[in-house]
Amino acid sequence: MAEKIIKGIIVDRLNFRDFDLIIKLATNFGIIKMVALGVRKTTSKNIYILNLGCLGEFEIFLAKNPNKLSKLKKGECFLHLDLVNKNIYSFWKFSSQIMHEQNFEPKIFPILEQAFFKINTKNADAIKVYTIINWIKFNGWIANLTSCKVCKTNQRLVNFDFAGGMECFRHRSLKPLIRFNPKELEIIYWSDFSLDLFLEKIDFYYIYSLFDVLKLFLNKNSYIFL
C-alpha cells in the first residue's frame, strides 16, 4: 500500500467489527473507502476527526486494488460543519447526496472545500444554490452560464435554458418553459465565477425563487431530493 496525505470530506461512516469504522471520504480525485482501525476504543483520539461533515487532511495507506479498503493512519480535521444549524444542514443535505453518488464528480470538490470555509447562517442558502448550479454544469446539463447558447455574446442576456444555457435578446425562446427574472439570471451568471465574487455580486433576495426552480429540475432529472 502506498502512503499518501489526502484532503477530503467525511461523507459516511459505518461500524465495522468491534472497534473499527469504515469511512467514505470525498476527495478531489474521487471517493476513497478506508478502514479506521481501533478508533471506537475508548482510548482512541481519532474518532473525533471522523464525524460527518468534517473537512480535513488524512494520512492513508492507499489500496492498490480498487475493490479493497484503504487504511487510515491518522488525520487532522480542519473544521466541522455545524449540522445543528438548519440552514447549514440544508446545504449538507444536498452536498452529502452528491458525494454519495457512485459516479462522484471530483470537479465539485474544490467548490465544496470553498463552501466549507465560507458558509455561515446568512449565506448558506446562496452557497447551496451556487453548489447546485455548478454540480448541474459538471454533469453536462448546462452548456454555458455566461453567454448566449447560439451566438456566444454576453450582452443583453434575457433568459436561461437548462438544455443549452443563456439566451440573448435575439435568440431567446418565445415560449420558454421557465422565464427567469434579471436578478435570477445574474445569480446563474455569477455561478460560473469564484464563490467570493458570486457572494459579492448577487442579490440574496432572489436566491429562494431560483432554488425552487433548481429543486424541481433536480427532482425531475436526478436522484437528488431537497
Essential attributes:
single chain; 226 residues; alpha+beta; 2 domains; 5-stranded mixed beta barrel; 6 helices
| CATH architecture field of the largest domain | Up-down Bundle
| Strand order across the largest sheet | 1-2-3-5-4
* Helix count from the secondary structure assignment: 6
The gyration radius over C-alpha positions equals: 20 Å
CATH topology of the largest domain: de novo design (two linked rop proteins)
Backbone shape: elongated
Helix content: 25-40%
Q: Output the helix-strand order.
A: EEEEEHHHEEHHH
- End-to-end gap: 39 Å
**Largest sheet composition:** 5 strands, mixed, barrel
**Strand share of the residues?**
25-35%
Number of strands: 7
Number of domains: 2
* Sheet/helix structural class: alpha+beta
What is the residue-mean pLDDT, rounded to a whole number? 92
What is the CATH class of the largest domain? Mainly Alpha
Low-pLDDT ranges: none
Walk me through this protein's architecture.
- With 226 residues, the chain is of the alpha+beta class.
- It has six helices and seven strands, in the order βββββαααββααα.
- A five-stranded mixed β-barrel has the order 1-2-3-5-4. Strands 6-7 form a two-stranded antiparallel sheet.
- It is elongated.
- It starts with a strand and ends in a 5-residue tail after the last helix.
- The mean pLDDT is 92.
- One of its GO terms (biological process) is DNA recombination.
